[in-house]
Amino acid sequence: MAQLVGKSIPGKTEPLAWMYNKSANDANRSKSEGVCEGIYGKWDSGIDNCDEFPSASTYEGSKSGSDTYGWGERYSVRLIDKTTTSTSATRFSK
Description:
The protein has helices at residues 22-40, 64-69, 82-93, and strands spanning 48-53, 76-81. The radius of gyration is 14 Å and the shape is globular. The termini are far apart. By secondary structure, the chain is α+β, with helices and mostly antiparallel strands.
């Protein structure tokens, strides 16, 4: 597995913390989707989703992570097939 020098991955050495704040979740998701659009351009939301790690519903998400912990950009985004994220989210929420 490739290692990136200086890359720190949330959840590797500390647990992720769920956040029950809809506006903060939405801010995380909005930032992640903006980064996806910057990388991949506009996408068809009927086909693809902007997947993010850590999840928008965590304090370690793309916006709240840097705001809460002051640690900079410790997240990743990628466009993936919508059926993949929908299936995973449904399984995870049970």
